[in-house]
């Protein structure tokens, strides 16, 4: 518990610096579980990633829970993790879970569509969603129309590339055209074990404040009853799943 307490202190400092202390947001974590990630799961690196992002959820999230997905050429929506049960989460919910598909090839679009389905359709809210998306290279270019179609939704994608894989497409996220707002950012961390908590949280939240300001100005993020947006959400997913 001592480690996560230190991480919570680090994220508090960053939130104060970026004037985000009064912001409430839902936090999700999408984890690459393709074959090239096997070692990082086995040696505890992914468990540490979960713990570090959980500290963000603890300070940021509307309910203190971190929603988690894993994906390779299939995907699974996992049990959310909290401060009371984060210890051994990766072993318990992922590595020792025989029902999960693991260590295959990468296919990002299906899991991204499920993330959007959860936050836009299943659980609409006046709170924005902040999604940390871990990838170790080779992300499919077919995520482009999904990001573009979701640019008028209160969901921000923070992609994190770890290791030395091919991140050519993710590096071009800021240049995507045809979006209502810039709803995605990419951060490359060669060795995620070596970056400090302060550096990690500062980098993760670099563009989120600017996006938050813009979606409020454009009326994308407003306090309203969830039912008010139902017709628009239906049209959005009809377009999205036809891609």
UniProtKB/TrEMBL annotation:
Domain of life: Bacteria
Pfam families: vWA-TerF-like
Family matches, as InterPro entries: vWA_TerF_C, VWF_A, vWFA_dom_sf
Residue span(s) of domain VWFA: 26-204
Entry protein name: YcbR
Organism of origin: Bacillus mojavensis
Upper classification of the organism: Bacteria, Bacillati, Bacillota, Bacilli, Bacillales
Gene: ycbR
């Amino acid at each position: 518990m001592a480690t996560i307490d230190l991480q919570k202190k680090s994220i508090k400092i960053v939130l104060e610096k970026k004037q985000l202390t009064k912001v409430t947001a839902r936090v999700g974590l999408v984890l690459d579980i393709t074959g090239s990630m096997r070692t990082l799961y086995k040696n505890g690196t992914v468990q540490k990633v979960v713990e570090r992002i959980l500290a963000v959820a603890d300070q940021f999230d509307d309910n203190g829970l971190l929603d988690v997905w894993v994906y390779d050429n299939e995907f699974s929506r996992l049990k959310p993790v909290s401060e009371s049960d984060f210890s051994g989460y990766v072993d318990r919910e992922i590595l020792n879970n025989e029902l999960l598909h693991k260590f295959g090839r990468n296919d990002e679009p299906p899991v991204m569509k499920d993330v959007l389905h959860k936050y836009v359709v299943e659980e609409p809210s006046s709170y924005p969603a902040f999604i940390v998306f871990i990838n170790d290279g080779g992300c499919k270019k077919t995520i482009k129309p999904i990001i573009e179609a979701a640019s008028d939704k209160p969901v921000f994608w923070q992609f994190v590339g770890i290791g030395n894989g091919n991140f050519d497409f993710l590096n071009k996220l800021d240049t995507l055209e045809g979006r209502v707002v810039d709803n995605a950012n990419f951060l490359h961390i060669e060795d995620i074990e070596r970056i400090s908590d302060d550096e990690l949280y500062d980098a993760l939240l670099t563009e989120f404040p600017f996006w938050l300001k813009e979606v409020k100005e454009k009326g994308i993020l407003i306090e309203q009853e969830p039912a008010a947006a139902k017709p628009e959400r239906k049209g959005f997913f009809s377009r999205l799943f036809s891609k």
